[in-house]
Amino acid sequence: MKNIEQKIKSIEKESKAVGFNQISDSKVGSLLSTLCASKPRGRFLELGTGCGLSTVWMTDGMDAQSQLTSVDNDEKVIAIAKEYLSEYERITFICGSGESVINDTEDNSIDLIFADTWPGKYHYLEEALALLKVGGIYVIDDMLPQENWPEGHDRKVDALVKHLHERDDFKVVKLGWASGVMIATKIKYTEINHWNPKNYNKHTAFVSQLALPVVNLLDPKKEEKIFDVGCGEGTLSVEIERRGAKVIGIDMSQEMIDFSKAKGLEAYVGTVTDLPYDSQFDGVFSNAVLHWVKDARTVVQNIAKVLKRGGRFVCEFGGEGNAYYLVNAMEEVFAYHPEFGKFDNPWYFPSVEAYTSLLESEGFNVEYIEIIPRPTPMDDISNWLDIFANGVTSHLTAEQFEVFKKETTKILKPTIFSEDKGWVLDYKRLRVKAVKK
Question: Does one domain contain both 425 and 299?
């Protein structure tokens, strides 16, 4: 790259002018340049463009056939990077979310990722790592204590470092210079299973994205202790902690718990029907989980047990009429195929009246309860069946499962698919806020 020093000085000056002080370290920059030079015809991804200092260094190391995609959600700072690097056709700048870029990038296709923002580092980590080819390199910095770290950030850093070192699909080294650099090289490709957090997040991001109003209903306060029942891969727990509360999460999936811990969360494998706490929490939160537990009374009793007096229970899950077409289509396919066995509906979708009665009988005052129709777009109904129909199909052979998916899709297409909107799930959610007497 011509005039690299001049470009760096100009970008640093522009950064200060707009008040952007998260300037990349020159040592890290020279390392990135060297690593990019080791990947001829490489495909590179930068998560967190900032004003473009590390982008300059990466471009300096790239050969003429290499391509770099750089993403940032701050239009003001990425405009500076574009101003000084627009002449390089090898760079594609995207002003948007890192999560979207990760979702739109093919697995096993990237030679180097520099993750300098939350997506791909403390959030969406598994999704980002899956993008790397075998031999691909993952680079992060700011692993040494920084003056501008918010309270509790050291826990997230320690958890991320520990998680990377414990992986068997990467060779990892931590360098104690500059701002603290970690380099991880992918040494094997890991197949995705049905409950892998990446697979779950990529096809069902709507589960957490649509739940932010439920977090608002919880209204977590600083220093409160919140219990997240069915925390999954931790997206909503992170949001609750971002608002100042301390979260402990449980989930029945070890894969999901590992993913949550990698974000610095305190989380354990467990079930809501057997909780080891007593009067310890200011709030219990649950999203898109309780419709999986048919023993609803035991659930409510356990939640009442772990809450302090005056503590609140805020949840959202499938309510009366939820997934009506989906459930009926699956049941119909089983009726066509007696060799599949009996259709066993694994879900509990209560009415407002039934759930209010249950809560009141177990010592709660119900402050708010409502069924919310929520037509929800889905990329492909086949992906929904892969992830969520396991409670119905776990006993089927691989061949039977493919028949099940094909015939269920055929039945559903006239009801929840259209050419203009694609697949739209017929969801109805029961949203609740109740306070322990």
Answer: yes
